[in-house]
Write a structure and sequence with these properties.
Layout: H1 3-10, E1 19-23, H2 30-34, H3 41-44, E2 50-54, E3 75-79, E4 87-90, E5 96-101, E6 104-105
Antiparallel strand pairs: 1-2, 2-3, 4-5, 5-6
C-alpha cells in the first residue's frame, strides 16, 4: 500500500531518493507524551525519531557554499520512533556504542 506514491516521490529528482535528515527524538519528549497529533509537520516531527527523504535543509544553499547537502524538490518525513527503540552506533575502530535504549538516549 502506498508503493506507487513512494516510487513517484523518490523519482521526482536526483536528490529525492537520498536521505536528507536523520533525527533522534526521545520517546519521553513532551510532544510525544502529549499523545496529540497536531497535523503540522514541524510540531509532529518532534514527537518521534524520523528520517526524511530529499532536501537536507529548509532552503537551498548558494551555489558557492563550501558545504554539500542533499538537495531536492521534496523533504518528506517518515516517523520511526517507538517506546522500545534501540539504536547502536559503531565507531571508526569498530566499537559498538548504545545510543538509544527503550526509546530514549542511553547517556
Amino acid at each position: 500500500e502506498g508503493k506507487e506514491m513512494l516510487e513517484a516521490l523518490v523519482n521526482m529528482d536526483e536528490g529525492a531518493s537520498y536521505l536528507g535528515e536523520v533525527a533522534l527524538v526521545e520517546y519521553s519528549s513532551p510532544i510525544s507524551q502529549s499523545n496529540i497529533v497536531y497535523y503540522t509537520t514541524l510540531i509532529d516531527e518532534n514527537a518521534s525519531c524520523h528520517l526524511a527523504l530529499g532536501r537536507a535543509l529548509g532552503r537551498p544553499l548558494p551555489e558557492d557554499d563550501p558545504w554539500t547537502f542533499n538537495d531536492s524538490m521534496i523533504h518528506i518525513d517518515f516517523m520511526v520512533g517507538t517506546p522500545d527503540m534501540h539504536i547502536v552506533g559503531t565507531t571508526e575502530d569498530g566499537q559498538e556504542v548504545v545510543v538509544f535504549e527503550n526509546g530514549d538516549f542511553a547517556f
